[in-house]
């Protein structure tokens, strides 16, 4: 059996020793350890993977870990089994490239999630859900029906026990209520190298500014638009010879790769969030 | 003999034919041609290199070109000999990496310019000017002496017939007066991927925002700070494990490479500016 | 109407003038021109796009171009309409990522081709052809049936008037006979930065060598394995912490992007081949 | 006081716990830990930095560490103080860009080494040694004087207590004898993305093959030419429009950056070598 523990706490001497000793004494064998100390903030972060025998009692381990390590060190910690497959909802609008990329990875077993449904404010991409045989819900959002739409979205998320949400070019703002229920559990892809060109039409803005690189940024969604903790970014060179249409075309490839990398990092429990930034374990 | 012509004008049919025919009939042989049409703006850009016999009469060619091509097509055009070596002034403050990089390229013949002097508002880098045997002028700039400092700077620029200025991490704002006298002839290096993190302390801002890439941007200086036409940009990946000091260290390598690329493009007459953007010929 | 002309010929003075004059006099308006001279080989290459009125007589233009320009300059030239959609066959084996990527681009209209069929030596990916409703032909290849398999492949290629073939991770060698019938018309993706790690299992070889970057290369297929003209390459950084499985996973993203870029360049008539190298127009 | 320990040993359970416990009990506070397990080879690697009080007895610590940890776990380990500045010799021939880059970093305090001398088989770069006031030794190497040249080189290396050697485009093969005395202590820069284009004239070979990226590789020198453990690699895109001269020019920038990164990693004790590969700690 394999286990993953994510830890953050106030930095102090002896944490690694304490944790690795506890795991060792509990019969575990550490196979991966990555840690980070933010010296300015005085915070310690660690991701540990360890193996155990198959009759390892996870519940008992967790109780003991909390009393002997978690509490004394005032840790914020969580423990996962890599075998647990999370439920991932996908929100889309009209662009299909990110959706296709995610679903093809899902279908080929590259992306280890369940996808209970695809939700959209438009019907344009329903055909893809049919291609991949995944339920599709059309919930249009207008000024008038916002509360009702949110209610329907939440009902779906609850009913399907959704663990996290991927906004695969969902061109609609997610409500504060949903954001607060899914803190650091909504992943968005923005089509610029943030913080440059936040907001609408970033390729148009990039073209107007005459930049020589364009980018894409995946981040956790917070209430402030395009300002959440960044998970992954990448860029591609452009030149004066490229039109806005070329920017959009080159950007599509970036967006889908950068989003999928972020989703994978989240699924593999390799992300931690603090101070509106991320620690991304290797 | 080799000649370079840079052209921009309102786009219309037949420009390439007209120019290449004129060169052909004048005894020239086009060895390079790159053109670009900005369809939104309706502007045509072209860079042509052609060879001629050694008894080619450049003055007569220019006069004829103006009357037969330039005027009819209402061109903004200029003609250069690649053998003409421009005079390049360097402005620095306290950081030495860009200065060292430029001077070592200069010394080894990689960068084809004359460097009549290095100007600084501090004395810290005088030792490098001595290492490379280039005159160094120390002109401190304070609130009180601004006018006098500008006067001294202009006197130096005029006396040495400076063609263009490189701000190799010059941490002082160049005056409007100098900018207006050297339009599109002052090259700055800014240590971020503009338009993100314009202004002071971009590495600190990038660190605070938690970006996963940092960049550097070389651009022509305009009155608006860090908002001039971008010549060249590049980026390097960073992670949570990098401190601000690491950002600065990685950034140094970017800055010097990105600045030197821009300087070379300018020297080789491969840049054109319009609408606060650049066309960079290959 | 838009037209594309691709030209290569021995380099000499006046070619651009001659071609642009001819187009001008035939009522065309050049909207794009990119040219390249290989000085060592003494060869001139050009790609021109021009607009014409809708009653432009293409046949007559081509005949005149050949007699007045093509013959005198001993050109190898061809002319295309961007509206002509080529027929592209896809050959696959068991890996699905490149196939999914191509088909999703095709389905969304990003890739302007017809796909008459998918051919495979295995049945594993038949389900994808069904998802996208494209005919699937299973032609196993063994030592014994090679001639018969080639016969069936050629029959399919001829019957469907296939213009070019994409090997989207086809793990089987295409026969010399087919290669000779589709010279510079078969595009392969190899999962290394060629010429490093040609042949089988490049990720394993890269892992063993301890490289810090891995790559992917799309190229036209020639008789010599993995040695044809390179169209596009890209790389991604790796470290000691990545396993062969990680290399393969990172490589998948590279492969599909690099292959799709090459296919697009081919479809847009932006590639020319000479001396086992490519000219890629912008 | 700060201390760095590098460890490698056969992988087994409890190593991290044992080491961190020992450091904790010795009064140290771990501020950085990075570890790697090569599962195929069954080898464990770790780099630890810890702080101690200023009256920490390093000698006693080392003796105890060896008896209580090193011996029982059969570790290959070493301990360093970051304050110890190593002696680095530079070997060059005629190209100056890597030398200039290293010396400017050295002069500005970015590179924390002593440089007792520069050695060359030519006199071309003597002027740079004078610019930077570093002793320069000219030891020509011919077929006839090989033994004598090696003797002089070794005498210099011994007399100046050289810790490691940087071949900054030294176009001469270092003798087996010197390599064996400086195992994993000679850093070379090769101007290709190895293993592609090993040996002489890699830019010419890359041009001939028509690659779309060129690269540079820094590696430890072993007896087999260009086949030692790779420390760092990077690449830059090229196109058909670039000549061999352009490749060389673009390559210069890569070479100097890639070499300097490798030198810094070595100086900061972030490299470990096994099975002709490197582990590079973050």
What can you tell me about this protein's structure?
The structure is a homotetramer of 282-residue chains. With 282 residues, chain A is of the alpha/beta class. The first copy, chain A, folds into two domains: 2-80, Alpha-Beta Plaits (2-Layer Sandwich); 88-280, Rossmann fold, CATH 3.40.50.170. Helices cover 33% and strands 27% of the residues of chain A. In chain A, the strands form three sheets. In chain A, strands 7-6-5-8-9-10-11 form a seven-stranded mixed beta sheet. In chain A, a hairpin with a 4-residue loop joins strand 2 and strand 3. The two termini of chain A are 21 Å apart. The A-D interface holds A 13-14, 16-17, 20-21, 23-24, 29-35, 37, 237, 282 and D 13-14, 16-17, 20-21, 23-24, 29-35, 37, 237, 282.
Q: Quick recap of the structure?
A:
Chain A has eight helices and 13 strands. Chain A has 282 residues and is α/β, with parallel strands linked by helices.
Features:
homotetramer; 282 residues; alpha/beta; Alpha-Beta Plaits; Rossmann fold; 2 domains; 7-stranded mixed β-sheet; 8 helices
């Amino acid at each position: 059996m394999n286990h993953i523990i994510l830890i953050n706490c106030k930095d102090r001497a002896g944490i690694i020793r304490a944790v690795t000793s506890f795991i060792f004494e509990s019969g575990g064998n550490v196979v991966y350890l990555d840690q980070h100390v933010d010296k300015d903030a005085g915070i310690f972060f660690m991701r540990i993977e360890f193996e155990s025998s198959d009759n390892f009692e996870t519940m008992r381990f967790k109780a003991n870990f909390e009393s002997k390590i978690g509490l004394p060190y005032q840790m914020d910690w969580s423990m996962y089994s890599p075998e647990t497959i999370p439920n991932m909802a996908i929100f889309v609008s009209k662009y299909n490239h990110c959706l296709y990329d995610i679903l093809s990875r899902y279908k080929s077993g590259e992306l280890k999630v369940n996808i209970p449904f695809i939700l959209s404010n438009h019907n344009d991409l329903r055909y893809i859900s049919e291609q991949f045989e995944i339920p599709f819900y059309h919930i249009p959002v207008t000024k008038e029906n916002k509360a009702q739409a949110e209610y329907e979205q939440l009902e779906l998320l609850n009913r399907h026990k959704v663990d996290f949400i991927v906004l695969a070019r969902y061109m609609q703002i997610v409500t504060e209520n949903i954001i607060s229920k899914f803190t650091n559990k909504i992943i968005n892809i923005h089509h610029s190298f943030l913080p440059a060109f936040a907001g609408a039409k970033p390729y148009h803005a990039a073209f107007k500014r005459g930049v020589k690189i364009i980018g894409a940024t995946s981040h956790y969604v917070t209430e402030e638009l395009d300002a959440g903790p960044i998970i992954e970014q990448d860029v591609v060179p452009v030149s004066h010879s490229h039109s806005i249409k070329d920017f959009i075309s080159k950007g599509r490839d970036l967006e889908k790769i950068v989003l999928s990398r972020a989703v994978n990092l989240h699924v593999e429990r390799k992300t931690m969030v603090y101070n509106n930034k991320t620690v991304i374990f290797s």
